[in-house]
């Protein structure tokens, strides 16, 4: 019918247009502009140049004098570089080498041919090494390359090879004060010992005497508390910059005080003692192999499915509780193998410092405890209730980090073990557990602001519960479960023993402290007891590590989020 309209689309139109321009170019037909660069002349089609380059599009369509000219002189680029760029505009291909990439990048930036700029950047980053790093930095800076991801990849290489690069004169010459400060403040330098970073800074300062005026400022980005005392004495205090820089002398004095005040280190939150770590690390501390052997390994998850083994205290100890204070790890109590070959409750406390990868034996708890709960509030670590092989108790004590001493506080209302705790709004929440009669739904909160007198805290035999307050009970009785707090709520994570059937249930509940009630969330993939739990705040992931399969009576090696 006359009114019917059908549309058709050519599958070869784009390629035929490109091929047509190439044919005209090769045959020298309809060329309407000559570009003069240095002593060379390049003939081309204005239409094609305008479609390929924003620079030429504006030149030939806007109100510019070049619009009507047939011969145009271009300055600020080379004929060699432009010849490659012009070939790309007609043929879509380009050949790069370290000998030509400089001129090609210059020409591509000049005519705003972004695709070629990206090719040049990819080529340079693929070829980067210690020998040409400074040259590539200078090249990208000279032409003001601002392609997404290029600077990040360049910085990643620099941070990965920072110390070796700082031994090269060409790199030292080009590295600016501002860039140096930026790199020293970056936690991706964690692969280098701090003393090596200090020595690298010395190399930069010595390279040009005029740089010495920056010493005081640069020194503030070196974390001297991450060094060893011997490094500070032998390599820092003996340098010429120690005599020159007042700031360096101050930083050294601060570090030496830090080393001397061993017990207070977890509470000294200074930039100089802050760990260089670009992302949170997952670490597993000890455990059991079967029912009778202690797994003393301490494992660091370096990357997916790759665990590194760290050095641990040489004690056959299965710690029950772990507390973290400013990235210091305290392992408390649990059970240790006695001379009779049996496991007994332990009062031992160990502290791990990831800065030095070292362990310290701290003051023992006042009583041996296993299957108890801990929480950190201010400068105190609280240990609540628990049991030995012979008795269950309600005593509560706290560890004063500043003086390495334990003292009793108001005891828990009832004898209990297998409970769990978490700190929320400077209060210690204790949930579930096993009492003398049954598995518990109880939720009890310890408020340290209501603590009694010293005389009351030292009376272990008399129940004084001014600090403890019962809250709404959980929906299910639980024991050997986990809790973790985040963003104003505490999350009670699986697993419980049903009193009637002794089976694990995969229930996650959230006690909303401001409403004093519990709500159910989602089930886990698999059900374990005695597992570990951690929260990745940046990813909003709740992650469970390993555990014990109650039905099958065996340990499970698994991670679920």
UniProtKB/TrEMBL annotation:
<dbReference type="GO" id="GO:0071630">
    <property type="term" value="P:nuclear protein quality control by the ubiquitin-proteasome system"/>
</dbReference>
<feature type="domain" description="BTB">
    <location>
        <begin position="31"/>
        <end position="98"/>
    </location>
</feature>
<dbReference type="InterPro" id="IPR047030">
    <property type="entry name" value="KLHL15_BACK"/>
</dbReference>
<dbReference type="InterPro" id="IPR015915">
    <property type="entry name" value="Kelch-typ_b-propeller"/>
</dbReference>
<dbReference type="Pfam" id="PF07707">
    <property type="entry name" value="BACK"/>
</dbReference>
<dbReference type="Pfam" id="PF00651">
    <property type="entry name" value="BTB"/>
</dbReference>
<keyword id="KW-0472">Membrane</keyword>
<keyword id="KW-0539">Nucleus</keyword>
<dbReference type="Pfam" id="PF01344">
    <property type="entry name" value="Kelch_1"/>
</dbReference>
<dbReference type="InterPro" id="IPR030597">
    <property type="entry name" value="BTB_POZ_KLHL15"/>
</dbReference>
<feature type="transmembrane region" description="Helical">
    <location>
        <begin position="530"/>
        <end position="550"/>
    </location>
</feature>
<keyword id="KW-0812">Transmembrane</keyword>
<dbReference type="GO" id="GO:0031463">
    <property type="term" value="C:Cul3-RING ubiquitin ligase complex"/>
</dbReference>
<keyword id="KW-1133">Transmembrane helix</keyword>
<dbReference type="GO" id="GO:0005634">
    <property type="term" value="C:nucleus"/>
</dbReference>
<dbReference type="InterPro" id="IPR011333">
    <property type="entry name" value="SKP1/BTB/POZ_sf"/>
</dbReference>
<keyword id="KW-0677">Repeat</keyword>
<protein>
    <recommendedName>
        <fullName>Kelch-like protein 15</fullName>
    </recommendedName>
</protein>
<keyword id="KW-0880">Kelch repeat</keyword>
<dbReference type="InterPro" id="IPR000210">
    <property type="entry name" value="BTB/POZ_dom"/>
</dbReference>
<dbReference type="InterPro" id="IPR017096">
    <property type="entry name" value="BTB-kelch_protein"/>
</dbReference>
<dbReference type="InterPro" id="IPR006652">
    <property type="entry name" value="Kelch_1"/>
</dbReference>
<comment type="pathway">
    <text>Protein modification; protein ubiquitination.</text>
</comment>
<dbReference type="GO" id="GO:0016567">
    <property type="term" value="P:protein ubiquitination"/>
</dbReference>
<dbReference type="InterPro" id="IPR011705">
    <property type="entry name" value="BACK"/>
</dbReference>
<keyword id="KW-0833">Ubl conjugation pathway</keyword>
């Amino acid at each position: 019918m006359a009114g019917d309209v059908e549309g058709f689309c050519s599958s070869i139109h784009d390629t035929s247009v490109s091929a047509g321009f190439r044919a005209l170019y090769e045959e020298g037909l309809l060329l309407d502009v000559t570009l003069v660069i240095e002593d060379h002349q390049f003939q081309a089609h204005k239409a094609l140049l305008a479609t390929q380059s924003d620079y030429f599009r504006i030149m030939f369509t806007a109100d510019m004098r070049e619009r009507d000219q047939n011969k145009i002189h271009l300055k600020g680029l080379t004929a060699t570089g432009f010849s490659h760029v012009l070939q790309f505009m007609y043929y879509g291909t380009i050949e790069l080498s370290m000998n030509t990439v400089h001129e090609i990048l210059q020409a591509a930036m000049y005519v705003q041919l972004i695709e070629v700029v990206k090719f040049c950047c990819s080529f340079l980053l693929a070829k980067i090494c210690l020998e040409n790093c400074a040259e590539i930095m200078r090249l990208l800076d000279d032409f003001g390359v601002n392609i997404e991801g290029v600077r990040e990849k360049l910085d990643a290489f620099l941070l990965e090879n920072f110390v070796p690069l700082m031994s090269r004169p060409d790199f030292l010459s080009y590295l600016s004060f501002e860039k140096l400060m930026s790199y020293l403040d970056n936690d991706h330098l964690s692969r280098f010992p701090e003393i090596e970073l200090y020595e690298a800074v010395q190399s930069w300062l010595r390279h040009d005497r005029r740089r010495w005026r920056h010493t005081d400022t640069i020194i503030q980005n070196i974390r001297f508390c991450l060094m060893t005392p011997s490094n500070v004495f032998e390599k820092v205090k003996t340098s010429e910059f120690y005599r020159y820089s007042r700031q360096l002398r101050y930083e050294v004095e601060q570090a030496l005080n830090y080393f001397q005040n061993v017990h207070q280190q977890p509470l000294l939150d200074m930039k100089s003692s802050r760990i260089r770590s670009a992302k949170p690390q997952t670490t597993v501390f000890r455990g059991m192999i079967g029912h009778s052997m202690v797994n003393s390994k301490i494992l660091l998850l370096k990357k997916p499915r790759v665990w590194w083994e760290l050095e641990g205290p040489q004690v056959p100890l299965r710690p029950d509780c772990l507390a973290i204070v400013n990235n210091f790890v305290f392992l408390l109590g649990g059970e240790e193998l006695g001379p009779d070959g049996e496991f007994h409750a332990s009062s031992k406390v160990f502290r791990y410092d990831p800065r030095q990868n070292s362990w310290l034996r701290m003051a023992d708890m006042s009583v041996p405890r296993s299957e108890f709960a801990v929480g950190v509030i201010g400068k105190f670590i609280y240990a609540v209730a628990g049991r030995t092989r012979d008795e269950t108790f309600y005593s509560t004590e706290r560890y004063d980090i500043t003086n390495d001493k334990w003292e009793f506080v108001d005891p828990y209302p009832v004898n209990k073990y297998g409970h769990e705790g978490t700190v929320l709004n400077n209060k210690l929440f204790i949930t579930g557990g096993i009492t003398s009669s049954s598995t518990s739904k109880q939720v009890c909160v310890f408020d340290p602001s209501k603590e009694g007198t010293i005389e009351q805290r030292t009376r272990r035999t008399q129940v004084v519960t001014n600090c403890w307050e019962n809250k709404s009970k959980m929906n299910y009785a639980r024991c050997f479960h986990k809790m973790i707090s985040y963003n104003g709520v505490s999350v009670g994570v699986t697993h419980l023993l049903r009193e009637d059937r002794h089976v694990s249930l995969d229930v996650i509940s959230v006690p909303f402290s401001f409403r004093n009630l519990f709500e159910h969330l989602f089930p886990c993939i698999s059900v374990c007891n005695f597992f570990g739990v951690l929260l990745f705040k940046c990813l909003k992931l709740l992650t469970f590590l390993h555990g014990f399969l109650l039905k099958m009576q065996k340990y499970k090696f698994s991670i679920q989020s």
